[in-house]
Amino acid sequence: MTASKGNGTQSSVRLATGAGRPIDIMNSVYIFGYQSILAAGSLATSVGAGESRQLIPARLEGYVRCWSAARSFRTNETKRYVYTNDWRIAERVAFATLTPSCSKTVNGVCWRIPTDRLADLDFREQGYTRIEVSQNISPYRSYELDKSVPCYTYIDPTPDPSPTIVSQSYYDMGRMGAASISKQVPEFLADYISSTEPPPFLADDLAFVFFSGDGHHLWLLEESDSSLVLLHRFALPQLIPFTRDPSESLRHVTTGLEWLDARHRVLPEVSDNRRIPSGMIRDLLLAANGEDVSASPYWLCRLIAADSAALPTVRLDELADDPDFWIRRAVQLRRAASPASSYSQSH
To answer: Nearest 5 degrees, angle CA 26-CA 27-CA 32?
Structure first.
């Protein structure tokens, strides 16, 4: 998909037309995406710009799209869903996956990427297993796939069929993406609907937060258009990094939340944005003024406090027993860092 426009609406889908620079066949693969990757801007910044951004609408035989990729976020190292009214962590949320079905064919898009970008995509799709589907994939009429290039997709290796909530915004990413593609492939949306099992529960009060692959950047995702807000840049990497330059930095800042983005944060006293509690804004203002927010009821503020070199040792010791895994991890990293480490460097 092309990147989202500044007004927050999705831009038109750029399907393959035969133009553009070809990727080296020996060093490229197709990725078959069937849900969030359909959304504008989503895959582009997970794998980098690459040599070609053109999508090929395709069908995968023998599968149906369902919502049994359940995730627990209480101890997840890199990502979490939070309830927007108070930023409590959502215990369990389900995502899309594919399940075998002899009589079904699921649709999606194939994107050709350099093989050296697969590590970035594997990081994005943690919890999923990448499998080859080259023998079962076929393009829509008037489109072509290079049969010499392998095709992969991601599925949950241990799906959980028990009913679990699905984020309304995440669900809409696939549905709206399919509707956009249907402007050029008329049957695409109908195929999407017919090959998708209905989600058991939809929740419209969830927000998605995640770390970049460098371990330094914590982001808030706007799922409707894949735009982002940088919540914090950590002095110490919070996970083992595999990249120095996070591709998320290429995305647009979410319209209306520019004031929250750490790269140019100018916090108001209050906000009418329903995703950001007024109490959290208050504590972020205190943190920005150098005050101690280690006792904040909001995990984000306590996490920022744990990353602050100015936090007194006694307060750091208290955070070592915090119920939030990310905060305990941040304390452990600070304690393990030597005085000569990069921790003393400014953010």
So the answer is: 105
